[in-house]
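---------- Forwarded message ----------

FYI, see the Stathmin record below. Original note from H. follows.
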Amino acid sequence: CVISDMEVIELNKRTSGQSFEVILKPPSFDGIPEFNASLPRRRDPSLEEIQKKLEAIEENNNFIKTAKEKLAHKMESNKENREAHLAAMLERLQEKVGLGEVGELGSSFSRVMESQEL
């Protein structure tokens, strides 16, 4: 049996199956154009494309800068709110317990809260 690009030779025919030998022919380059092995030339970017890329980079940098500023502002306001809340809790504690014991409790409470920040 001969197929266009390969030759099949029957070797053994048994009840358990058949065995074949397949011989592939070497490729022929008749009628097929040669492919250019070099990569296509990369065109030089125009001044407009360079300007667009620089503007995009600047916009990205500005976005990052504003995001960092917003985060810093948010963290600062959270810290101020936390300190105000702790001060209010200490004030309520002073009203309930009295001034004598609050000095010790307030200092120990503030030490505990500072250790939680770390």
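H. also flagged this: The chain is about 60% helix and 15% strand.
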